[in-house]
């Protein structure tokens, strides 16, 4: 059995890793988790490990803050000796953060095979740190798990050898299905914040292109504030980066219901009951679709173009009229489809109602096992 070292660090990675790590534990696979510390506080990290029952990290590097170079460099410096002493058979990384790149680069330099979950995504905006991390990680990885046909085609176009690419679908859909049910049972966030189902706007903003640009951030917050004043309650779990940026630029919305970052079950409940979602998050765009809620994406481009083509998502550059777009999108239902799977893998399972023979409880585990099998097959080659 191979020994796997998983490198994680940021909120969306905890969510993607949860079902996979559970499968490793069930199958008796030796997985050690390294938490880089990129997201570190209770609301952005701890709560996900508890709620999603992710095994406690074996190593916590405690690295956060500073610029991209400082953070990534510190991670490389800490990861290399750790990987040298642990000598895993595989290093597993998720998504597109600095932790993803640091994990992939450290392993690659030590000739340890790297598997990348959520490979092949592109926004074609090279200024985004996430885009830089994705491109570099994909070209370092030995096994690339893609969520969509588009991502697979993109990797082929970039010259990644065919045998490295595995179309498995989107692991976040597994999480959405499983935790969607749990959220219905366990979350009481609607009553906590006096929200009426189907009668509020959910908003999240955290991308550097919005938070580091005072004009864009002001335009988003003013647009949302306008909706909150005139039309509907707007609830916004505020990312720490966005809170700091608002303070820095003196942006003080008066009508938006600002709350701190919430745990995943509460977030899923907020998504499922929203009239419309406004976001610049990659994960939240997809979750809106998974839960059948229309979405406006506050960016100039998206990695999840399928959802725009299907009508579920509308791109809106924050320079334009946010209120009109939100009110119009509220009533839109996109076309049906299954863009996140092909019929024989995790993503395929994820994009269809699960087979009756698979109980909801064992479903994410089963999905994750498919993923694990693909890694093992590759290791045997
Ligand atoms: N999320 C959460 N609580 C929040 C905001 C987001 O649990 O207060 C979840 C959300 O449901 C999604 C993930 O975090 O699964 C998305 O993370 P984020 O927006 O930070 O990153 P991105 O997806 O853009 O990489």
TrEMBL record:
The keyword Transferase does not apply. Its EC number is 5.1.3.14. One of its GO terms (molecular function) is UDP-N-acetylglucosamine 2-epimerase activity. Keywords: Isomerase. It holds the Pfam family Epimerase_2. InterPro entries: UDP_GlcNAc_Epimerase_2_dom (IPR003331), WecB-like (IPR029767). Residues 26-350 form the UDP-N-acetylglucosamine 2-epimerase domain. Belongs to the UDP-N-acetylglucosamine 2-epimerase family. This is UDP-N-acetylglucosamine 2-epimerase (Non-hydrolyzing).
């Amino acid at each position: 059995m191979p020994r796997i070292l998983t490198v994680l660090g940021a909120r969306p990675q905890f969510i993607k890793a949860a079902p996979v790590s559970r499968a490793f534990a069930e199958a008796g696979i030796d997985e050690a988790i390294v938490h880089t510390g990129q997201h570190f506080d209770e609301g952005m990290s701890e709560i996900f490990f508890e709620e999603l029952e992710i095994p406690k990290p074996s190593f916590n590097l405690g690295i956060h803050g500073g610029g991209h170079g400082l953070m990534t460099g510190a991670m490389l410096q800490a990861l290399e000796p750790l990987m040298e002493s642990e000598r895993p058979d595989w290093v597993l990384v998720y998504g597109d953060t600095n932790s993803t790149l640091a994990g992939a680069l450290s392993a690659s330099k030590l000739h340890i095979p790297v598997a990348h979950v959520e490979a092949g995504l592109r926004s074609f905006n090279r200024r985004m740190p996430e885009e830089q991390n994705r491109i570099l990680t994909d070209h370092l990885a030995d096994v690339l798990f893609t969520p969509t046909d588009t991502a697979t085609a993109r990797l082929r176009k970039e010259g990644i050898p065919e045998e490295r690419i595995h179309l498995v679908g989107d692991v976040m859909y597994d999480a959405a299905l499983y935790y969607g049910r749990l959220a219905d049972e366990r979350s009481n966030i609607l009553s906590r914040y006096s929200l009426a189902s189907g009668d509020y706007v959910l908003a999240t903003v955290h991308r550097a292109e919005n938070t580091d640009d005072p004009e864009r951030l002001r335009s988003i917050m003013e647009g949302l504030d306008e909706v909150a004043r005139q039309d509907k309650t707007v609830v916004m779990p505020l990312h720490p980066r966005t809170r700091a940026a608002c303070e820095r630029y003196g942006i003080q919305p008066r009508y938006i219901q600002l709350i701190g970052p919430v745990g995943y079950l509460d977030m899923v409940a907020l998504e499922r009951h929203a009239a419309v979602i406004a976001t610049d998050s990659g994960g939240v765009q997809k979750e809106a679709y998974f839960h059948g809620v229309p979405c406006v994406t506050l960016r100039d481009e998206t990695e999840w173009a399928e959802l725009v083509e299907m009508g579920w998502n509308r791109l809106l550059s924050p320079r334009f009229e946010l209120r009109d777009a939100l009110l119009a999108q509220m009533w839109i239902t996109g076309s049906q489809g299954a863009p996140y799977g092909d019929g024989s893998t995790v993503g395929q399972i994820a994009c269809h109602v699960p087979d009756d023979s698979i109980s909801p409880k064992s479903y994410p585990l089963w999905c994750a096992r498919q993923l694990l099998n693909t890694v093992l097959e590759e290791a045997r080659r």
